[in-house]
Amino acid sequence: MNARVQSAVLNGIDGIPVDVEVDISPGLSAFEIVGLPEATVRESRVRVLSALRNLGHRAGSRRITVNLAPADVKKHGSLYDLPVAVGVLACMEAIPASALANRALLGELSLDGLVRPVPGVLPMVAAARDRGIAEVIVPAANAGEAAAVRGVRCMAAGTLQELIGYLGGSGTLPEARPDEAVAAAPQRLAIDLADVCGQAHVKRALEIAAAGRHNLLMVGPPGSGKTMLARRILTILPDLTYDESIETTKVHSVAGLLRRRPGLVTQRPFRAPHHTGSAASISGGGSPPRPGEVSLAHNGVLFMDELPEWRRDVLEALRQPMEERTVTITRVAGTVTFPADFLLVAAMNPCPCGWSGDPRHRCSCSPPEAARYRSRASGPLLDRMDLHVEVPAVPFRDLARRGGGESSETVRARVVRAAEVQAARFAGDAGARFNGRMDSRRVASCCEVPPEAARLLEAAMDRLGLSARALDRVLKVARTIADLEGCERIGPVHVSEAIQYRLLDRVSPA
After folding, report:
1. Does residue 288 have a cis peptide bond before it, meaning omega lies within 30 degrees of 0?
2. Does the fold of domain 193-405 match that of domain 2-181?
3. In a 3-state reduction of DSSP, which class is residue 190?
4. Cα separation, 203 vs 101, whole angstroms
C-alpha cells in the first residue's frame, strides 16, 4: 500500500511544495525516510510511531518507507510529523486515501498525539495555495498566521485523533478565519515623543529620519536620552500596510517568533540587539539559515547602541544590507536571501569615558584616545548614515518642563503626509519608495537646487570637508525637509538645515 500527502519546506522566507510519499510492505519492522532529510526529519519516525501506538494504531511487522520529493532539496524541521503519520494511516486504511486529495498538512507531533506548532507556516501555506491546493491543515497554535493567506482554506488541528476523525468524515476541525488574523488597527504604543525633555533638534532629526527613511546616528554623553529617543521613533512612523505586514510576518514566522503572538504582525518591529552579538546573529545564519536581526527589523527599526563597542566584522556585515535591502547567506547546501529593509538608528558616546563636551563632568580622555574610539565605527559605515546629530546633556530648566513638546501623533501626521508625497513621486519605482533610498540618478532628477543653495553646498564641501557621497546624502535629507514643509522645490533653508546634520563629516581643527 502507498499514499501521497502534500506538504512544504522552507527556503529563506519562501515555501517550496513537497510530496510526502509513504509505502508500507510486508517484512521485518523498519522505518526509513529518504529525500535528503536532516536529523530532525529522521527523528520523525520515533514521534510518529509513538503517537500512532498511543492512539491504538500499530504498524506491526511491516517495512515503512517515506520519500520526501523533490529528493534534491534538503528537508529540515519537525513539520513532516503530521503528513508522515497521516500517510501511514492511509496505507493502513485507518483513513480513506481519497481524503488526502487537494490537501496539504504541516505540524509536529508529541508522543501522545498532540499537534505542536512549527515555524514558517505562513510562507508554506502561501506555497500550497500557489500550487492550487484548496485546504491546508495546520497546528491550532499556527492558525492565526495561516489564516492571513488569502485564497486557501485553513483548518486547525489540535490532536492527531481529531484529525483522523475529520479526514474519516466522523468529526470536524475549526476553520481559521481570515478576518481573525488581522487586527482592525495596530494598538498605539504607551510611549510618546512628548515624554522626552528638551532635545528639540534631536526630535527634529528623528522626524526627518522617519519621514524619508534616513539612517540616523546620535552622539552624546550617558544619560542624555539617546535610547529614550530611539525607542520613540516607532511612535511617529506610519502604520504597516497589508503587504508590509505579510512580509514582516513571514520573517518572524520563519524565525519562530509567532508562537505566543498568533496572527499578522501589525506593529513595526524594533530590534535592539546587545553590542556583544556575533555577525551571524546580526546578519543571519545557522543550519538551516535563519533570519538575523537585520531581517527581523525588516520594515521597522534596528537600534544599535554603543556603536564603537561592536566588533568590526559585525559592523562591516551591515554595509551590504544597508545598500541592497536584502541579506544573502551562502552555505555549502545552498544560498538563501532574506529581506532587510530597515531604518538604522545608532548611538554612541563621544569618547571612551563618555563625558567629552559635557559641562557638568570632566572628560579624562586625551584627543588621540577620543579619535581612536570614534574610529572603531568605520568610515564606510558612517558614510551610510544620512544624519549625524549631537545629543547634549539636558539642562535642569528643560527637565523641569516635562511634557511640553509636540506629541507623537502631531509629528506622525507630518511624517505620513511626507510619505504620501514620496509615494506619489516614486510611483512605479519599487527601488526607491523613500528619499533615503534614492540612487545617484534619482538624486540628480529629484533634488535640483537653486543657485543660492548650490553656493551653500559648495561652501560645505570646502569648509566642512564633505565627500561626494555625503553631498548626495545632504541633498536627500534636504528633499525630505522640503517634503515635510510641503515645498515642491528645495530651497536654501532646507539645504542649510540638512548640512547641520553632518556632524562627523566636519573637518577637525588643526
Report:
1. yes
2. no
3. coil
4. 58
In the prediction, which pLDDT does 184 show? 42
Which pLDDT belongs to residue 504? 76
pTM over cut 0.70: yes
211 within 8 A of 498, measured Cβ to Cβ: no
Query: By three-state DSSP, how is residue 438 classified?
Result: coil
Separation between Cα atoms, residue 383 and residue 322, nearest integer Å: 11
Query: Could you state, in order of their start, the residue ranges of all structural domains in the chain?
Result: 2-181, 193-405
**Cα–Cα nearest to 421, from 402, 436, 440, 434:** 434
C-alpha cell at 322: 544597508
For 2-181, give the CATH class. alpha beta
C-beta atoms surrounding 403 within 10 Å: 10
- Are the C-beta atoms of residues 188 and 230 closer than 8 Å to each other? no
Q: Where are the alpha helices (DSSP H) in 255-355?
A: 279-283, 293-296, 312-317, 319-324
333, HSE (Cβ side, Cα atoms, 13 Å): 16
Q: Show the DSSP H helices in 8-105 as ranges.
A: 39-42, 44-54, 81-91
Cell of 7: 506538504
Domain 193-405 in CATH 3.40.50.300? The answer is yes
Handedness of CA 259, 265, 270, 271 (dihedral sign): positive
Neighbouring C-beta atoms of residue 227, cutoff 10 Å? 17
Where b means 16+ CB within 10 Å and e means fewer, 300-323 reads: bbbbbbbbbebeeebbebbeebbe
Torsion (CA) 48, 49, 52, 55 in degrees, nearest 10: -120
From the list 110, 122, 176, 114, the residue with the least C-alpha distance to 8 is: 122
C-alpha span between 292 and 286 (Å, rounded): 10
Q: How far is Cα 380 from Cα 329, in angstroms, rounded to an integer? A: 22
- Partners of 302 in the β-ladder: 271, 344
Under DSSP, is residue 258 helix (H, G, I), strand (E, B) or coil?
A: coil
Residue 445 makes CB contacts below 8 A (sequence gap 6+) with: none
From the first residue on, what is the mean pLDDT of each consecutive set of 10 residues in the chain (510 residues)?
A: 92 92 90 93 94 89 93 91 96 92 96 94 94 95 88 94 94 79 59 88 96 95 92 94 91 84 83 93 86 95 95 90 90 83 95 87 90 85 89 76 80 96 86 86 90 88 77 93 94 93 61
